[in-house]
């Protein structure tokens, strides 16, 4: 195997979107084109419970969450695509954010009827912070949605990123004639049968289609030509470097449901999305190169109890350099412990299989019996490698928690400590009474926490919701415990740092008005 060639073929990315924008549908199209599935509806089937393969933890089955699709590796047009899932809805959790630490690019799917929605915005901000390229797919053009100009303007304004339209829709809904494709210099037609059997027709030097075709008779075509002219003159310039830096997002239009424009999008995506590149380590000036001989990688997600019979956990590793081979010995930097990797898994569309070999850019699952934590680095070779810690994210939901049975304090504390360390949940104590408060970015984290405490630590807990809060950190020097009130509960985080849990934005503003010199800080 030629490592450099293999690495160059990798495209490791996540799809970010608000629920219902069409992430699953577009994933399905990708699987169809890659030949991994033969029929649309296979991926969706999991949600409706038809998918029988999964033996993940009961809680996930109850909720119908498809963890089998956590990572999918498929061939597409000579590329090895690693698509990492970012669960949404109620399954949204810190893992969703951490997943974005393990990818080299993101695809942002937007419902053209709705525009930028809250969850898209949150996930986008994490991608932005990482400076990875972001590709936009404006979906559902088969329906009447908002004006394309308006959508692109909103994208630029709300997300504070420049956009470059790679193609432009000719109409929408029932009047959707096709795509005017700047990038490929052609039009792509939704109704080839009405246009001499042509799916594609080239644009001439004036940017028009030669010859007589039905779609050209519509005023939509002439309107599109005008818009195209406007975009060329007033819009951003295509700039590959700015795309790579995540400063400019290429925008594609289409319909995931009918598959229209998806392949055009994917073809451009695999061309422009980056192959794995160097990754910084804690040692400044000593990044790891994907083609380095020695293996290195980090753990970005731990999925517990995927198989209830074994009570095992799977640690998801992003390989950053070298080649993984089944049965190899690696070291965990944090513990300096040597571990043989002989039970690893790779994820396909609907199956899991043992991995024999994997390279930088790939994601593999390690069966874990408690050796790994989120953020751990593994490596081979003489020289220890350590990747920077994964960022922590500001939780938004909070619960008070206490053991149901006071006689079982010990198992409660042990379980709590373990789960917090693992990154499953964030822990806070109230300033004076030292009550336990747990924080999460998604409701699912609480359920998993409760489930695991009971099943793994035999500890039943009492939880009472405190609802949404805005967590803001304050330095010890600036803090006066008298600043605390019922609307900004003072707590300590796991490191002992003071943090206020504000009722709402109004309470934050009120506080800042009262103490204008005090600095409040959020995590990411
Ligand atoms: P996800 O929550 O982002 O994974 O969204 P899904 O892929 O499950 O899609 C949500 C709903 O939108 C489903 O009913 C899809 O059939 C529908 N949908 C997805 N893409 C399109 C599209 O291009 N056009 C139309 N009309 N509906 C779509």
From TrEMBL:
Keyword Nucleotide-binding tagged: yes
Coiled coil start-end: none
One GO cellular component term: cytosol
GO molecular function, one term: translation release factor activity, codon nonspecific
CDD domains per the UniProt record, alphabetical: RF3 (cd04169)
Binding site for GTP: 17-24, 85-89, 139-142
Pfam families xref list: EF-G_D2 (PF22042), GTP_EFTU (PF00009), RF3_C (PF16658)
GO term, biological process aspect, one: regulation of translational termination
Record flagged with keyword Signal: no
Localization terms from the record: Cytoplasm
Principal location: cytoplasm
Domain Tr-type G stretches: 8-277
UniProt keywords, alphabetically: Cytoplasm, GTP-binding, Nucleotide-binding, Protein biosynthesis
PANTHER family listed in its UniProt record: PEPTIDE CHAIN RELEASE FACTOR RF3
Annotated family: Belongs to the TRAFAC class translation factor GTPase superfamily. Classic translation factor GTPase family. PrfC subfamily.
Function: Increases the formation of ribosomal termination complexes and stimulates activities of RF-1 and RF-2. It binds guanine nucleotides and has strong preference for UGA stop codons. It may interact directly with the ribosome. The stimulation of RF-1 and RF-2 is significantly reduced by GTP and GDP, but not by GMP.
Name of the protein described by the UniProt record: Peptide chain release factor 3
